[in-house]
Amino acid sequence: MISSPDVFNMSHVARFVRRTNADFLSYDFLYQKVVQDIRDRLDDITRKFNSVLLCGEHTGQYFLDVFPDAVVMDIVLPEKFSSYIGQFDLIISLGHLHRANDFPGVLIQMRRALKSDGVLMAAFAGGETLHQLRASLMQAEIEVLGGASPRVFPFVDTQHMAGLMQRAGFALPVVDSEIFSVSYRDMFHLMEDVRGMGESNSLMAKYRAFTPSRVFAHAAEFYKKNYGEGDAQDNQRVMANFEIIHAIGWAPHESQQKPAKRGSGQVSLTEIL
Prior knowledge:
By secondary structure, the protein is of the alpha/beta class. Helix content is 35%, strand content 21%.
């Protein structure tokens, strides 16, 4: 069997994260919002979690205090816990699945790590994230350099995520997304936030050559022209979208509600319509 080539350079991912550790809390406004969403969803689950796995570079700092009576493990990369079979009541995955090289494989490992009727709660970036920035940089590279460097992550959308969770063996998957629009002074202030979050370009296929400054200047003008707020271009701010996908799924258990068998309905739709 031939393995698929890696999409992300994980050593670069680790370097970008280490580089931001000291100042991360100055750039965690999206994490703060997503963490509150996950906490609200946890409140809707009326059960006690005795064993919890926290996945992601920063997950522990936001959730360790939520489970004072539980045994909690905090790891960075979900690829590293394949030996944990049936050990956890809850797995929280925050802000890293969009950089998984083997997305379906990671989901399978997560499901296997759960106890029967255990739950996975995941939140990660979706395809609408920074589409304005990606388009502006691509257009600038085409016009200035004659070609574009790979900058688009292979994002998963909500429909695809639901299918992947079912394939991984999760029961009762629920997937939804929310888009946050953030106003910035200009493209460069947005890029500072992106670096501060540890989300610099880690694609294996990206160009290694130095990008001339005129590419970024051209991209900033394109961004302002096409995604600016208001009419006075000199003082325009620009908008940036961040899409967060939330996914919840359960390890199968006999007590869970089962979907009705195909053809088991007692009333014909023709009689209703």
